Amino acid sequence: MSDMLSAAFVTVFIATVIAQAMPLMLAAVGETLGEQAGVLNLGIEGVMLVGAYTGFVVTLTTGSFWIGMLGGAIGGVAANLAMLILNVWLGLNQIVIGLAITLIGEGITSVLYLQNYTKSPASLGQQPKLTLPGLSDIPVIGQALFQQSGIFWICILLTLGLAFALARTNWGLSTRSAGQKPSSLDAAGGSVMRTRSMAVLLSGALAGLGGAYLSLLTTATFSPFLTNGLGFIAIVITMLSRGRILVVMITSLVYGLAVAVGPALQVVGFTVPADIIKMLPFIIVIVMLIVFARSSVVPPALGAPYTRGAR
Length: 311
Hints:
By secondary structure, this protein is mainly α. It has helices spanning about 5-35, 45-60, 65-80, 80-90, 95-115, 140-170, 170-180, 180-185, 190-220, 230-240, 245-265, 275-290.
């Protein structure tokens, strides 16, 4: 028990919870903005992978985690352009487009990584390390923790700001109207297309930011299929949160606790099968889905393209 209460153990445990929860929270907040505007994006998984790979490459190139995070956000926006053009502008099926974005994101990031960072079969698994100028003697995990504090607080403030904006500002009212009853927004003089476009771009930026956080600060590297279903968990959390970003934050923290508890038990001497550790977060998500699914509410216009003047 004394090992579990040691300062070092508690510090590492909290850092692990944050590192696991933040990518999910950012992606789920982005999906929340999109769904509140009436756009269901099943491509969050692919968008996160593009953001993770872009952030990884930009950080290796520039040596800056901060620029890497920005690169991840830009990569997420670029990946979500397909949803913007094909659905919001052209009115094509959101589900088909979202699944296509996931498949393309998984494929293109895997191919680019294997071509550029694994030159031969013998080099598979030898992944490049992320280093910072002047801190090359610190292990890469230490560098990630060194950077994590500032980026963590910026992401938290950004999320809280979006929560306030969605609930209390005219922009938030327009966004929710685009998902609740877009014809009312249109009749009031607002633009459904512009509102949904902004929501999709913000959603892509946040999902890309979550992917970059995952590759730069959670794992400190990139590997194919790095997200491992995290984007789909973000969609589930979004639907259970009923558009409340604070609930998204709390649920993401619960996920982080579920991921961190397995390694923590192993550190203090409890023998836990590795398969159980991997299954635990998904079991918790399934239990939450069973318990709260009936109380979940999605916007009435979610998934329905809007054409001005159509009835």
